[in-house]
Amino acid sequence: MTGIRLHAPNPGWAVDADVVVIGSGVAGLTVALRCAAAGAKVTVVTKARLDDGSTRWAQGGIAAALGEGDTPEQHLDDTLVAGAGLCSDDAVRALVTEGPDAVRRLIATGAEFDTDADSGKILLTREGGHHRRRIAHAGGDATGAEISRALVEAVREAGIETIEHALVLDLLKDAEGRAAGVTLHVMGEGRRDGVGAVRAGAVVLATGGMGQVFSATTNPAVSTGDGVALALRAGAEVSDLEFVQFHPTVLWLGPDAEGQQPLVSEAVRGEGAYLVDADGHRFMAGAHELAELAPRDIVAKGIMRRMQEKGAEHMYLDARHFGAEMWAHRFPTILAACRAHGIDPVTEPIPVAPAAHYASGGVRTDLRGRTSIAGLYACGEVACTGVHGANRLASNSLLEGLVFAERIAADITAPLPEPAPVHAEARTGAGTPMAGQPPADLIAPELRVTIQRIMTEGAGVLRSRKSLEQAAAELDRIALEADGKAGPGTECWETTNLLLVAQVLVAAALRREETRGCHWREDFPDRDDAAWRRHLLVTLHQDHTFAVSRTDSAAFPPVNPLRPQGVRREHP
Ligand code: SIN
After folding, report:
1. Ligand 1 mean position to 250 CA, how many Å?
2. What is the pLDDT of residue 234?
3. Residue 395 Cβ < 6 Å to ligand 1
4. Does domain 441-550 have CATH number 1.20.58.100?
5. 248-354 and 441-550, same CATH topology
6. Within 10 A of 436 (CB to CB), how many other CB atoms are there?
7. Which helix (H) or strand (E) holds 491?
8. How many CA atoms lie within 13 A of 401 on its CB side?
9. Where are the alpha helices (H) located in 414-489, listed in sequence order?
């Protein structure tokens, strides 16, 4: 048996399903709905409440070629440019061609997008890197909240089993190394408590991102990299982890601001806001043909450069010209967040600075969402499908969650060529299914802020060999000094996950000696296609060391040809 596991009590209870989905954002709930509709018994496990993931915080919207004159081909072009040479053409083509119908199916599921009062057509806005208006939005700037509402309602109506307040711990495998379920810890509420297991022939990771690895992020508190850490411990490949996207315009709340910060959507720039320094100079004009609507990495770098030149802690986003009515109608969420912090965007420019926003890399998958472990799928921000390359195009993530969720559900529920028996070990009681896997020492929760500080200083927007080596040494020291005294518990497990993803992220960032997309190396300021138009794949060894390997080209090698075992194939 390969893999490492978190130090945790043995499961005291177990439930069986055909498919277990970990996470309840757009990706997880769409997989769950589609698999259930095909007759599979699905259990959704989520860390907080069903509507508490990252999806609900998405403001700007969902990108799809829905507008007159727009085409999937144009959406593809913009996505490839933003991805800076590392997108998978096939993955992007799947996204942009299947995207419009996937959005229509989302609408049929109940999501209500903003429409023109006269024509009834979906209103579309622009965001960075898009040459057209192609971002559908809801509630003005509350798109994710509306999508989450519609999907949660649909999951409840479908009677899909959900386990809330449950932190996933580790993957269960059968004797042949296929996914066979997960262990999890339910936190105090609901029908079950303590450590248990959901046994299932197909496991779908849809756990979202890892923004909490940095001090300031737009991500909610639940985004602690649990899915990537689980996949690494289980022996799966992760890829492109060095490409962390920093959102250029996050409300600046002071130098010591920590945790989730209010986002000021790119759609505000899409509707005509501009970036200025303290002297009112519009520094992005002339820096790129799309000025403030250049791809996100370029705007974030433009802001950081100007901050360095001026010795400033932030820049400003000026949208006073929108006027009170437009602010209230089009951006009610952002208006309320700014006012809650004493800033009135109707009368004053908004102080903004970049903060960690999105993991472009993650658990490597193929076009069906399969990872390098048979039966283990990944979808949404936790996955690296190849859609985002070195830098995600704005508002492509909700679409990726939708499109690849449908692909995964189709793969899981497709008829098998011949019946495949469920492996005994996957179906035996909740005893010690991971015997033989060495437990990882747990990291004390007090070290969470130290890890975040190390990452922000050493592996933030601007990186160098020196800053990354220092970060690696400090993170390694934390790992080495773990003395087994930190006992099992949610905060310890989360901090242990954060440390692991931080170490892998830094190892990859150190290895990539160039500047590309959202990976910005001060000591290697240029893009180097000859040496680096390739991906970095990382796997974790049993002795806790990493293997970081470079692909031969921008194409990913194939992942796992095997389908999961034991998934129901017919309507019951
Ligand atoms: C935004 O509204 O600016 C965020 C959209 C995204 O991250 O895709």
Report:
1. 11
2. 97
3. yes
4. yes
5. no
6. 10
7. helix 490-511
8. 32
9. 424-427, 448-458, 465-481
- The pLDDT assigned to 68 comes to 94
The CA angle 220-221-222, to the nearest 5 degrees, is 90
Q: Residues 246, 251, 254, CA angle at the centre, nearest 5°?
A: 100
Q: What is the pLDDT of residue 416?
A: 60
What predicted TM-score, i.e. pTM, was given to this entire model? 0.93
Is 394 a pocket residue for ligand 1 (Cβ < 6 Å)?
yes
Ligand 1 center from residue 401 Cα (angstroms): 14
Helix (H, G, I), strand (E, B) or coil at 240: coil
Which of 247, 303, 333, 352, when mutated, tests ligand 1's pocket best, judged by the most ligand atoms within 8 Å of its CB? 247
Q: What is the DSSP letter of 321?
A: G
Atom of ligand 1 nearest to the CA of 357: 7
Closest-lying ligand 1 atom to the alpha carbon of residue 397: 8
Q: Is the CB of 54 under 6 A from ligand 1?
A: no
Answer yes or no: is the C-beta of 293 below 6 A from any ligand 1 atom.
Answer: no
Q: Enter the tokens of residue 484.
A: 């087994």
pLDDT of residue 361: 97
* Structure tokens belonging to residue 533: 């138009």
391 lines ligand 1 (CB under 6 A): no
Which fold, 248-354?
Answer: Flavocytochrome C3; Chain A, domain 1 (3.90.700)
State the virtual CA torsion across 488, 494, 498, 501 in degrees, nearest 10.
90
Per domain, the residue ranges of the chain are 248-354, 441-550
Q: How far is the CA of 398 from the centre of ligand 1 (A)?
A: 10
Check if 218 has its Cβ closer than 6 Å to any atom of ligand 1: no
Return averaged pLDDT per consecutive 10 residues of the chain, 572 residues in all. 82 96 98 97 96 89 96 98 97 98 97 96 95 96 96 98 96 95 86 88 97 96 96 97 97 94 95 97 94 92 94 97 97 97 98 97 97 97 98 96 98 69 37 55 94 97 96 96 85 96 98 97 97 96 90 88 57 36
Instruction: Considering the candidates 34, 126, 134, 296, report the single residue annotated as catalytic.
Output: 296
Is residue 529 within 8 Å of residue 85, measured between CB atoms? yes
364 is catalytic: no
